[in-house]
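Summary for the steering committee. The consortium agreed at its last meeting that each partner would contribute one worked example illustrating the joint modelling workflow. Our contribution is presented below. We chose a case with several input lines so that the handling of multiple components could be demonstrated. No manual editing was applied between input and output; the record is shown as generated.
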Amino acid sequence: MTVSNTTSIVEEITKLESEYSQKSPQDILAFALKQFKNITISFSGAEDVVLLDMASKINKDIQVFSIDTGRLHPETYQFIDRVRKQYRIKIDVIFPDAAEVEALVKEKGLFSFYQDGHKECCAIRKVKPLRRKLATVDAWITGQRKDQNPATRNSVPVIQTDTAFSSEERTLIKFNPLANWTSAQVWQYIRANELPYNKLHSQGFISIGCEPCTRAILPNQHERLGRWWWEEAADKECGFHEINLTQNNS
Amino acid sequence: MDNHLRKCSYKYLKIMHIKLVQKIKLDGNSCRKSARVLTNLKELNLLHKIDEIIAADERQQSDSEGFNLARKYQVSSAPFFIVENDQGAPKIYTAYYRFMKDVFDISVSESEEVSEMMAQNPELDYI
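What follows is the complete predicted structure of the assembly.
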């Protein structure tokens, strides 16, 4: 099945998602790499090393990018470079706009996120460079999984139109081959295939982001409790929660 | 009701009716994002162009038109816009910056655009 013109793309993606939702990550990756010449894999320097390993076994010429926010752990930098050497791939390390970072730091200092929340800093250091990168490709691949966020368990399809980064003129396709895998499956793969992994995982870090905003978690805590733990769930106040939308159905 | 003629990049040349659905919290106040959008429209002198402001009121969920519309159009957060053309076919906008661009041909700054993108897609934080 081929992905054709823009008008029917959403329908095709819906059909493909249904077809591929039960397939293995390797099958989804193979499909993605076959369908799109201009496709890139997002590598955050954490468990998504699994994607690179799987993809490199399908195609030696994979495109990979990582976002260097300027605030990553030393272990993450070391890991990204180890992966680069071990897999003999060129990782496109992208950076935020220097002037924007400088302006933020000049105005608010180096740790504004502890008072103001993380969104402003993430927008400048991560999302804007991500947006610039994704404007240059037709599709991208992430290591997102359903079990990473218990609140949105059903909202990570294996294939989707990326509504965040698409425009009226251009539809970006996003693949999440590991969507239906659990953390246990990811780590089973890492161990079985003797993949390198970020040393922070050995120190109790599961979800790894920037150094000031990431911490190790305790046993049986959800991995996302290790990220921006000081913030309240302010964004939830505008949500239409399930209880709101299922009430008064009779 | 006046017809709204707009220069816009969107294919609708004649927008007949614009509805804004905002969320009203249990304390009677608008949710943060709804309040921000309403303030911005007022500052730009565009609030009067919104034909209806409908409440998704947490205090009256069983009678709330706003929640009914959210359910109907599968929208997960407020505020959102329902724009109907002269054929009556509605277009739903959940992204404020896209609504402003398409309907009023007003571009917001990249920072505002990215801020809204992040609010709409919280998983971006974890990329």
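Chain A has one domain: 6-203. The domain at 6-203 of chain A is CATH 3.40.50.620 (Rossmann fold).
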